[in-house]
Amino acid sequence: MGELIIVNSVENAPEPESHEPQEPQEPQHEVGVGPWEGEWPTGDRWDPELLENGDRRNVLDQYRYWKHDAIVAELDSRRHEFHIAIENWQHDLNIGTVVRTANAFLAKEVHIIGRRRWNRRGAMVTDKYQHIRHHPTVDDFVAWAQAEGYTIIGIDIFPDSVPLETFDLPKRCVLVFGQEGPGLSAEVHDAAAATLSIEQFGSTRSMNAASAAAIAMHAWIRRHVFNQRVS
Ligand SMILES: C[S@@+](CC[C@H](N)C(=O)[O-])C[C@H]1O[C@@H](n2cnc3c(N)ncnc32)[C@H](O)[C@@H]1O
């Protein structure tokens, strides 16, 4: 393998001024490895172009020089049982970050409900490695969940919400998040088997959807990967 090259923080990149959806971009500073040194490895997973020119993608070292499809196939072989969904009626800037976290926790799929276009900036290209399905309406999304046997769990602070911290999350579920402002729609609220709130202690009424999504996904990981039961 070539030599690992430094990594400036991609988190410090300036935010775009426009709130319009952006094309996904690889980080602009140089990350990754240079051209493969020595005899090339053999096998289908290796990408000749990356071996020749180096691999500057934002991926784990174990995937260096792998073809994109080979990485996705390897991830597919061990994805977790939970899905996540987020409503997208007003181009919510949280969605990219939610997708990035879904990739980190290896969600089976991400569902975008509402508008098809979403701002990919916060995804940092992780959307290329994540299965993303679009549902134009809540009805369409609910029909998918019912057909596939996934329990819909809403995440929001409704009067009838119960605490996430003590709720036994089903293994086969889809966690649904609302967007800034309106939060979860009444249709999703009605379709959910339960709606869960995350306990807060400060002065603000809610946190942003991306933070809530990270906490809820991690709750699923703790319960079903680490077998940490709730009381
Ligand atoms: C900014 S909140 C929307 C406003 C919120 N419905 C309200 O009544 O103030 C955006 C999304 O983040 C998630 N969220 C934020 N704070 C949360 C909390 N404490 N518990 C559960 N979900 C939360 C929910 O999915 C929500 O739809």
TrEMBL record:
Keywords: Methyltransferase, Transferase
Highest taxon above the source species: Bacteria
One Pfam family of this chain: SpoU_methylase
Name of this chain's protein: rRNA methyltransferase
MF annotations from Gene Ontology: RNA binding; RNA methyltransferase activity
GO BP term, pick one: RNA processing
Transmembrane segments: none
Species this chain originates from: Neomicrococcus aestuarii
Annotated InterPro entries: Alpha/beta_knot_MTases, rRNA_Methyltransferase, SpoU_MeTrfase, tRNA_m1G_MTases_N
